[in-house]
Specification:
Two copies of one chain form a homodimer. By secondary structure, chain A is of the alpha/beta class. Chain A has twelve helices and seven strands. The radius of gyration of chain A is 18 Å and the shape is globular. Chains A and B meet through α2, α3, α4 and α5 of A and α2, α3, α4 and α5 of B.
């Protein structure tokens, strides 16, 4: 079993101060709240966390601050995949040094139509340069955003060459058949769904959990699905999954980071949550109002704020 | 006239050493050779130059080294547009400080389907943070690679708000109608083609030149087109343009950076030119052989190497 990771991970939002810089105290508070409310792990600095809108210096500092502020390294699975080989190496090395459970690694995503040879070389070069047996890589498959497809053959090559390091994949493609195919094909390779609605369907087929944006506000539901499934209580798992999916559908009809920051702002009463780095923008008042009407109709409320 | 820039710019290749780091002496030599052989300006650190495969530290150092090695700042138009706001600000500030003629600025390119409001905010935030009246931005429009479209309305908004700073656009969309529309719509806004074949067609419609990959080996042809056009010798301009287009077509049928590095390696006899950072890969021997057969059939040879 390559993957030691399982359960429900939040793709953690990054609260920003008035200068649009990460707010150290606020993200530590948010991470603690997430752990207290259903999150097995914290995938900071992913797509939802606006990672690619921060410099590598900002990202390194954010990771160091979290550890200093008491978040255990072994619950973290930070995003570390950048366009630049040297950036990915630096961030990944830092994550390993801080004891992260794994890293979530996008392929370099500027160039399009690159070959599998080029993608293999990208991952291989990072692994060789980091050169640390503690490194566990979860490939981050999100072709709609990255413009790059991580296919079956590439995973197979990587697993063959780096069986101890390549531990799993977060699949945000929205294609549950792709997730299941990979979970079936590569035993021990931990496949996590990037979409809440496939948490249970993927668990049933050998997946190990999910890493999702909506877990910033609804991890307690994912956790209930996961716990029920582990206890063999499929009926409960399915019932709660249906509820989670409804919440997910309401939120993911909108730009995810903006919608979730809106929910957090209302939930905590802290307007700082509205801050978002360009090119993302805050939801319009109309869209926000519609979202809250829908969430209310679903009788959805996040757990009490800290 | 916002744009002081005109003529033929190379989207300069970045020679790499055995560790895949920029080779300082080699890029200075290449830049001098380009200036001696038809280039009015040097767009270092663009798509062809593998910029996004380098960290911002590496890019800052490359710019500083070029200046120290005697390349005049005012012939440079470096790429400075990154995913991260803070990276774009840092690189842009450095380019201005070094006296660059302008900067070529990709929009943040990780997030897709972002709004014009978000793109406007991205550019505006950079301009405000750099806060330097010397800054001249050339928007870098390359939707096939960036996944982001810089449309007419956005340009209009930016020009209205920052008429002295937003100076022009490099259009690599391959859509000459888009280039011409923008050249017609915004007098004084310097539109440069990202594709050699549209150099003359765009000059005829008010464009100011081109910034191209193929200019790494064939700027002498572009320079001849430009000079003939300026002298009113349309016949010569058209004849040389046809030749340039044929060379361009041969090279751009292949991955551009790899193909051009192959041509430079053969031309200079220096195998270091084969080095390329993942996810890009060297051309296969077969494709390279085919390329040289085609270039030979066109009787194409770059100017004597230094």
């Amino acid at each position: 079993m390559n993957s030691s990771v399982q359960g429900v991970f939040a793709a953690v939002l990054t609260p920003l101060d008035g200068d649009l810089a990460p707010d150290r105290a606020a993200i530590a508070r948010h991470c603690r709240w997430l752990r207290d409310n259903g999150c097995d792990g914290l995938s900071v600095l992913g797509t939802t966390g606006e990672a690619n809108s921060f410099s590598v210096d900002e990202r390194v500092r954010l990771l160091e601050d979290l550890i200093e502020d008491g978040i255990p390294g072994n619950v973290l699975m930070p995003g570390t995949g950048c366009c630049a080989l040297t950036d990915t190496v630096r961030l990944t090395r830092k994550a390993v040094e801080l004891g992260a459970a794994g890293v979530l690694m996008l392929p370099p995503f500027y160039y399009k139509n690159v070959s599998d040879d080029g993608l293999f070389a990208s991952y291989a070069e990072v692994i060789e340069r980091v050169g640390d047996p503690r490194l566990r890589i979860y490939l981050y498959h999100f072709p709609q955003m990255s413009g790059v497809f991580l296919g079956h053959d590439l995973i197979e090559r990587l697993l063959k060459r780096y069986p101890d390091t390549v531990a799993g994949m977060k699949d945000s493609s929205g294609d549950v058949h792709n997730m299941i195919r990979n979970a079936h094909a590569f035993p021990g390779f931990g496949v996590l769904s990037g979409s809440d609605e496939f948490l249970l369907p993927l668990l049933k087929e050998g997946g190990v959990g999910c890493i999702t944006a909506v877990s910033n506000v609804a991890a307690f539901l994912g956790a209930e699905v996961f716990a029920a499934w582990r206890q063999g209580d499929v009926e409960t798992a399915e019932r709660v999954q249906a509820r989670l999916t409804a919440v997910r559908n309401a939120i993911s009809a909108l730009p995810l980071t903006a919608a979730l920051k809106e929910v957090m702002a209302r939930h905590t009463g802290d307007d700082e949550w509205f801050n978002i780095r360009p090119p993302l923008t805050r939801l319009s008042a109309t869209r926000a109002a519609d979202l809250f009407i829908t969430l209310e109709s679903l009788d959805f409320n996040p757990p009490p704020a800290p």
